[in-house]
Amino acid sequence: MALLKADVLIIGGGATGTGLARDLSLRGIQCVLVEKDDINAGASGRNHGLLHSGARYVSSDQEAAKECREEGELIKKLAPHCVDNTGGLFVAVEGDNENYAADFPQLCDECGIPATSLDIRDAREMEPELSEKTIAACMVEDASIDPFMLSLENMAHAQNLGSTYIRHMKVAGFKISGNRIQSVNLRNTLNRKETTVEADQVVNAAGVWSGEIAALADIKIDMVYSKGTLLITQNRITQRVVNRLRKASDADILVPGGTVSIIGTTSTHIDNPDDIYPTVREVDYIIEEGGAMLPVLRKTRYIRAYSGVRPLVRLKASGDDRDVSRGYTLIDHTENGLENFITITGGKLTTYRLMAEKTADTVCRHLGVSAPCKTRTEPFPRSEHGKWTEPGFAPREWMRKNDPTDILLCECEMVSESAVDDIIASLAHQKKRPDLCSIGLRSRVGKGPCQGTFCSLRIAAHMYDQGYLEADQGTPSLREFLRKRWRGQRPLLWDTHLVQAELQEAMHCGFLGLELESSEKGG
Amino acid sequence: MSRPTINCDLFVIGSGMAGMAAALFAAGRGINTVQAGMSSELAYASGLLDLMAVHPVRESRIWDDPWAGIDALIRDIPDHPYAHIEKADIRQALDEFMAFLNSAGLPYKADTDHNSRVITSVGTVKPTYCVPGSIWNVVRALQEKQPCLLVDFRGLKGFSARQIKEMLRENWPSLQTARFSFPSHAPELYTEHMARELEKPEICEKLAEKIFPYVEDARVVGLPAVLGITRTEEVVSNMEKFLNVPVFEIPTMPPSVPGMRLKRIFETGLPKLGVKPLLQQKVRYVKSSKSTGDLIFEVGPSDSRTTVCAKGVILASGRFFGKGLYSDRNSVYETIFNLPVHQPDTRSLWHRKDLFDTRGHLISRAGLETDEFLRPIDKSGRPAYNTLFAAGSVLAHQDWMRMKCGAGLAIATASHAVNSFLKIKSSLS
Fold first, then answer.
1. Which residue on chain B is closest to A503 by alpha carbon?
2. How do residues A291-305 score in pLDDT, each as one tens digit?
3. Which CATH code is given to the segment(s) B5-103+264-428?
4. CB contact, 8 Å: B311 with chain A?
């Protein structure tokens, strides 16, 4: 069994965990970050990609609103390459509460959040897709953020400072002696190999799985799982973020992301955070609700749906998950009798840095380290690892290089052979064996109209050529990649998408027989 | 402006496998036939003609004998279109279809009572029934694990000889691979272009010269399916002469050359048999004539429209990809006659949660229900029109992609629809 030693073991490779790794590394503390899947596999990768101005929370939670404002400004300044500073609108339509709309600018003002009331005609000129039934509009400083690039950049910076990232590694158990975690047992989710980590401090940043991790140390955290579903449109609908100007509800927010827009969400209480998928009902509901604000949403094409689970910690009895705190929860488990164990969960993508800072402060106190937090002032060095997730980057690179031998493996998103090789090389840097899913996570591959039908096969062939796949590994790798894409396609399969899905089935099943698990191998 | 009107006995709507087969069989029986259709799906066909290989799909049971497979299928799924057709008629339809291909210079081969196994571009082994002559050599090579050289090309994406070798290495250890630049080298290669190039003897020879030193002990050479489009037999035989060993093709991902060959053979061959083509034109159903019972259509764009007046119609318009079926968020519709479509109750039931669920997706079994003559039925369960027949994938209660019965279904139902038309027409007169 392998043995690793570290100052701090961080469990969970989402925004908080990777942000914490960077924060601690900047204070000179070496971390090992373990992730049971891959970067942003939980809520960090399954949200709107919205950098809140804070305006959404001015009536429900003024503290959260102010935090969002401050943190949003910091991220825009320190990681500008992860942000598209689109600006945002809040709009109310006929039938929405007019008093809420009328009070809104004043509430923003109280939180120091810039907000400008707009003439309806001006608002519709700025965003022509807004409904004719718009009755109020207000301009704020929302922006869109690439959560994958953000986490990859956080981790890359931490790694450059000496920390380690290990994926596909799940916590199997804690070895506790007295009031300390002596060591943590990890199991590789792919090959079942076990590793032990001895760390001075252990931080549970496992998001929705925080309760499960804490339970391994016999500590109960009362988690509430709130499922949210979102849809990605084929084209960008608006230039700015558009929020519904009403008490927070479903399908309230449309966020532009490169060439697409993302509409969501829903909020459904669920019992189990695993194995979630967007349903046909949720999709149809989002389309109808969102259509009130932006009628085009009722007829536009969608390329994918996805669901995430918000990790919320129950503070009081309540029926609506939205009343459960969306602020973060930081627990120093010294209060439960374990003095080197900390849980950080809940919160928002926008405030991830603050959560990391507060957690790192606690870690440092435990370690007796006095180094101050640097993430408020230290800009992100731009690494190479996150760049391929940006829409438009791969095509720009490809045209700039103008190398006709560098053929496009993904034609929808224009990802070339050399781009795929570059991603594989960055995986090698992170000590990862490349597979289709991890390439998909780090690029736009499979995210265009063909949803991986063609590019998956081309990339698999290329990986065999380069020796990254051998024997019959290609088939399970293809299946896993296509299955993951399918979750997001399934509720959207009507009209042209159903045509595309039928072509995919004809190719992958009809012709290639990929559904025949135990398919003959020529024997 | 007077619009041209065409009167015909039989109007075939569709230019995929089923539409082509229906036009072929109709012409063969001396029926005055017009065929319309938008872009043909045949360019997307692998070129392999499946008859029946997997049943029950839930168990992924693969049949070596397709005829026994059909028996089992009909027993378990009595609504499957095969259930309307005698096995002898299916055999005869396939024979007739293959005879046409043979006479047109695109020979196919089949092992009468067995499925044959060929390899695909991702290195899976596919059971199928009729195999293009240019692919046929792989059947024996695979069976006997002959020493074999697999060839691929720099710049032809999605085709890796190494992948196929790796995928098959346990059971076919004597595979070797070699990669070449294509003689008329462009950075990126397209199969159709390569196939046309290889029809030039000098290009074929140049390529063979490159490959020859690598043949060594190999007793057979496999290449991606690019050995010509219009003169495949000749290209294959040249290549075999140069290399001094048999060669075989491996079908590639679509658009695939063996599919294009089929498309071309029908598009050039059917008019010679007397079929009047109105291809690449949209069809709109107008009405059924009260006096004659003829079905009347408008074909083509509004500024140059042709009226077609037909005694009988074979609807071989395909599914969603072929545009015979259309869906919105709530329902599936048939696009020409708005016939009732057998389908699951709600969209939530259309697709399984798992893409590769071995039961297949319920939407795949949606389609038109018919009587034993393959006449689509209306809501009351009676034939919607006396002389409207349906053939191919538009039919309900089949999942050709999972059952591996696509071509057989298209050919057998096309033949049955033509025969039914003749039967019903003679009963009328």
1. B321
2. 999 999 999 999 899
3. 3.50.50.60
4. no
